């Protein structure tokens, strides 16, 4: 996990998420969420690196152990409930992070009519970070071989 999501990448996502949350709060007079007031939301939106790592871990766990609805992971039915998810983060906080998660700065995005507009701007730095971290973590052995099905004849 730490090889792909190193501290530098987690820090970048955390900063961009907190920046987006601040922008969203300042641009909106009343934020419509499950919480009672925008003041409550303001207290909770600045996530920490450990909360972000926990959230990513929950996402990975949910991908491996798929259920029909997110609420099922916290169900009172023991056949559905996933204790590691329930014990890691509340559903409200999990949903707050989903609402605010950002991996790149929106203010740097070029308009759609610009010839240099990047359709992947919102996730470009994340993709680059994962590719760079994968390249650092994977050390192929000296006995690598290419299967003939990988080559087009």
Automatic annotation (TrEMBL):
InterPro entries: PGBD. Residues 1-151 form the PiggyBac transposable element-derived protein domain. PANTHER family: PIGGYBAC TRANSPOSABLE ELEMENT-DERIVED PROTEIN 4. This is PiggyBac transposable element-derived protein domain-containing protein. It comes from Harpegnathos saltator.
